[in-house]
Amino acid sequence: MLTLIWAEDQHHLIGRNGQLPWHLPADARYFRQRTTGNAVIMGKRTFESLGKPLPNRKNLVLSSTLSEQPGILLFPILAELANWITHHPDDQLFVIGGVRLYKELMPMADRLLVTKIDATFDGDTYMPAVNLDDWTLQSTEKHAADDKNRWPYAFLTYVRRPHA
Ligand SMILES: NC(=O)c1ccc[n+]([C@@H]2O[C@H](COP(=O)([O-])OP(=O)(O)OC[C@H]3O[C@@H](n4cnc5c(N)ncnc54)[C@H](OP(=O)(O)O)[C@@H]3O)[C@@H](O)[C@H]2O)c1
């Protein structure tokens, strides 16, 4: 199963200066719980923003300029990555950004996990449009702000709508 996972603000903002625009521990925990033990797929900038491969996960990185390094499976072109995905239908694969990968792999995805943060931030990187005709909202889990999480947020799960 291929899942796109991301967090966005009210205006679909996802990044600022190569980093996340917010600090929201509950979302970081959700991301870790969902992806641990599985494979994460990312572009070069997202990989660089993490600083190192994510532990206990298979790290797939798409980049034509990075060199091979321990802990990652490197794909220089999208077609090779798409081919790898096609050959791992029984694995839990999570696309974790950034913009081009979300856009290019959305047609192959089975599920979207979206954290909606009920606030607006400054930034420079926005989630590509999602055509909601293609997706059914399966669940919404709302949370209020608290001591550690400064803004209200919700975890949304969309599954691909079956073809008519
Ligand atoms: N809020 C969230 O959930 C979330 C999630 C992920 C990222 N982010 C944020 O988003 C920003 C990073 O995302 P980004 O969109 O700027 O960058 P990105 O997609 O992570 O990285 C872009 C690079 O990835 C490689 N790449 C991507 N698509 C490719 C393709 N189709 N073919 C070949 N190479 C491809 C290219 O590297 P080469 O130039 O080496 O070929 C490209 O320069 C950061 O601010 C990060 O914190 C936020």
TrEMBL record:
It comes from Furfurilactobacillus rossiae DSM 15814. This is Dihydrofolate reductase. Belongs to the dihydrofolate reductase family. One of its GO terms (cellular component) is cytosol. GO terms for molecular function: dihydrofolate reductase activity; NADP binding. Residues 1-160 form the DHFR domain. GO terms for biological process: dihydrofolate metabolic process; folic acid metabolic process; one-carbon metabolic process; tetrahydrofolate biosynthetic process. SUPFAM superfamilies: Dihydrofolate reductase-like. Pfam families: DHFR_1 (PF00186). Keywords: NADP, One-carbon metabolism, Oxidoreductase.
